[in-house]
Structures are given as structure tokens and as C-alpha cells.
Amino acid sequence: MPTHAAIPAKAFDVVIAGGGSAGAVLARRLSENPNRAVLLLEAGPAYAPDAYPDVIADANRVGGDAAHDWGYHTQDRFGLGHDVRAIRGKVLGGSSGVNAAVAMRARPSDFARWSARGLDGWSWDEVLPVFKALENTPTGDDAWRGRSGPFPIRQRTMEEITPSMRAFVLASEAAGLSRIADFNGAEQDGVSPYPLNVVEGRRINTGIAYLTEAVRRRPNLTIVGGAEVDAVLFDGRRARGLRLASGETVEAGRVILSAGAFGSPAILMRSGIGRATHLQDLDIPVLQDAPVGERLKEHPFYYNVYALKREARSMDPVAGAIIWTRSSEAAPDEIDLHISGTHIFDPARSPTGGAIVLACSVTLPKSVGSVRLASRDPRAMPLIRYNFCEDPSDLRRIMEAVRLSRRIGRTAPFSDVVEAEMYPGTDIDDDAALRRAVLSSIDGYAHPTSSVPMGGPDDPWAVVDGSGAVRGVEALNVVDASIMPDIVSAPTNVTTIMIAEAISRRLG
């Protein structure tokens, strides 16, 4: 029996599978036309804008809980030695409801790489106005920032972060990094407190920002929570609706998948769109042979953790500041390393009751992962592999980031507030030992992308075109982080929102 609210027994013009960072945007924008009937299906709870529980609304609580997460992990133990937890929000607002709320745009060089794949419409000059239009930000330069969009972005100040986080910023400057006024402005190579989609301690996910009470009252918009999607239904090669995991069906003139970098490829494959050999192994009839799930990207990172002295052990707020800079292997105009300062750590694990994490990441990884189906069961966890550091350049660069992080750890004033380095620990003092430490506990940033990539007509890896339209079929689009042709060098949430805004305009 279905556990969700009843779906009206009518044909919709558009049905959207997934109400996360992209799906919520699409539901708002596409329902602005009062003559278009829009149905938004979300597998998790569909809370009212002011009724999200603290685990979703409180910006100091990151990662959600079992009730609001898909419970996925990777299958990397065979190559990496351990699996990686693959956090994905299961709630209206999706992963924008469980992330650290870091609101940083991708850079011009990221979009130059997209354009190099034969894509039109995604150059920096074309996406900057969309980025500006989606946000409301009271600070920064008018040339770069938007003032009246639905999505709030607030630059955290030095006064708002913890004493240890201020020390991290100042020590980074002492180590030679520039202070950045606004990562969403003209310059990014340096250190700064975060820009966040947090207002008065509340994480403003897209279910809140885009699906306001006024939007939800639109008579042409229906939002249903607890509705997990199985597959797309077709008449010939034209999408005509969706089948839910409960067995119910929904008819629509257009189907949009916004189920994320794991959910969207899984739905496509269960619908017969994917590598023919993989589908045939699962006895799924092949509708379209396509490289679904074969270009998965994720930001790998390693936790460099310090116990704080008792007089500096404040851990509120948890999100503080970040370094964004270039490795020795970065191409011109690329900045490919993050060192993210947070207090996302259990204070009970620190001998002093306080800790700071400097999470070291390669933001332009070359290693490629994959998403496959484990079975035809729509509730079965997909087979996810990140293949972290399969490309040797990724390991070299993450080691470079860790060395920089540890150098900052020894630099005043940060060193003045540190009691001890917890991870990797002071006994790890040579490259071989550090390499083992990094590989043994490397994690994912929860930024998966590119499993259903966009591409130009001559791109053999492209599954969708520049508007997210699935090749080889009609009336089916994918719009979420899965369609990024390559991962961007920033946290992915704001760029995902931008993608949904841009494509909603093309869909009219």
C-alpha cells in the first residue's frame, strides 16, 4: 500500500521525480505558468517550510539522520580498502537539507571545460546572470552578486566564527595565502570565512527557499512526499509518466528526473536506458544503449584534525572558513584544492572536549567512478564506486593539500590554540606513512556529479544534451547534479540550483 498522500487522478503536464536542490527549483519555476499542471514527487518527507525538524533546519547539524538519508555507501573496499558513506538527503530540499550549507559558485574555468565538450549555453558569461538571479545577498559587489532572488547567501564574518576558526584564517594568511573578501566575487585563490545559505542559524534548503507557502498554494502545483519512483513509462520512445515503487502510475506530458547523481541514473537504467550489457545482465529490456553511470565524479577529502586547547574549544558555529587554492599540478586559471575548516566532529573524541577539522580535498579529481544497479528492485541500493585516487595525480594533490594544512597547523596564531594534532598524528612524519594514513580514511565530500552527463552531439560520453533532454527518446529530461559534464571545483549545491534555473527557462 502507498504511504504517501493520494495523487490526484489526472494527467499532469510535467511530473518531476525528486524534490531536492534541482527538483524544488523546477517545481517553482515550471508552475509559474498557471496553465501548466506540475506534480513534484519526493521520496522523503515533504515538510511545510516552517516545520522542518532540527536535524534538517539547524545549520550546526550536518549529515542528517537515518530518517532523512538514503543510507548509501560505496563499493570501494575492493580497491580503496574501505567503503565510503554516500550521504544523500531524503527530504523535500534533498541534500541541501543535510549539507554544510556552503554557498560557493563554480568558477569560469569550470564552465570553460564544459564548453570544451561541445556544449552550447553554459559559458561563464551565460551562467553568471543566472547565478545572480537565483540569490539574495546583501553584501559584495553588484557586478557579481544578486539581490532579489529566492536563495539567501550570507557571507560569514570573522566575528561570527569561532576563535579557533579565526586563528585558522590568520595562520593561513601568515603561511602566504591571500584573504578573499568574497569567494563569489572576482577572486577566489586564498582564504576566507564561508558564504552560507544560513539565516539566523537556520539552513535554508531549496524546499524552504523555493517552495514557500505561497508557491505551495498554487492550484496547478501538487507536491507529494513519501513517493519513491521506480521507472519511466514510455509509449514507444516517448515518455508518458512514471511508475512508483508502490506500483502506482502517474501520467504526464513530460517527465523530469531530479533524483540526484545516484537516483537519476538508477531510474534511467530501470527504465531501459543504460549500457546494454549491464541491463541485459539484469533482464531489463534495452530501450536506449547509453553510457549512464559511467562518468561519476566526487571530491575526495581527508580529515586533518586538531584537539583545541580548553580555552579555545568553542565549536559553535560548526561551519567556519575555507582555503581555495591551486596545486602544483593545476592548469592555468584552475584552483583545485580545498582546505575546509569546520567543527563537524564529535567533541567527545577530543581529549580536551573541542576539536577543529581541516578537511583537505582535491576539487578537480581525475579519477572516475561509476553507478550501477544491483538489481531491478527500485528499493535496492545502487552499486556505487568512487575509485578515489585511481588516477595518481589525485593522491599527489591531496597529499599536497594535507602538507599545507599541517604547515598551517604549526603556524601562529592557529598553533597557539591547538593542544595536539589528532589525525594523522605527530607520529606520521614521512611521506609513505602519510600516504597510508590518507588512503586508509579518505572520505567523500557528498558532492557526486556527472553520472548522466551533458555533452555536445559528438561527445561519446554524453547521455543528455545541454537542456538535459535524454538522447534517443522524447519528453524526458534529467536536471540535477548528475548532468554536470564534469565536476566543478566548488561545493556543488549552488551550481546545481543554477542548472535547474537555467533549464527551467529553456523549458518555458
UniProtKB/TrEMBL annotation:
Annotated Gene Ontology cellular component terms: membrane
Named cofactor requirement(s): FAD
GO MF terms held by the record: choline dehydrogenase activity; flavin adenine dinucleotide binding
Domain Glucose-methanol-choline oxidoreductase N-terminal: 89-112, 260-274
UniProt entry keywords in alphabetical sequence: FAD, Flavoprotein
BP terms from Gene Ontology: glycine betaine biosynthetic process from choline
Binding site for substrate: Y445
Source species, domain of life: Bacteria
The keyword Flavoprotein is assigned to this record: yes
Residues binding FAD, per UniProt: V91, N99, A100, A101, V102, V229
Entry annotated with the keyword Flavoprotein: yes
PANTHER family recorded: CHOLINE DEHYDROGENASE, MITOCHONDRIAL, GLUCOSE-METHANOL-CHOLINE GMC OXIDOREDUCTASE
Family: Belongs to the GMC oxidoreductase family.
Protein's name in the database: Dehydrogenase
Organism whose genome encodes this protein: Methylobacterium oxalidis
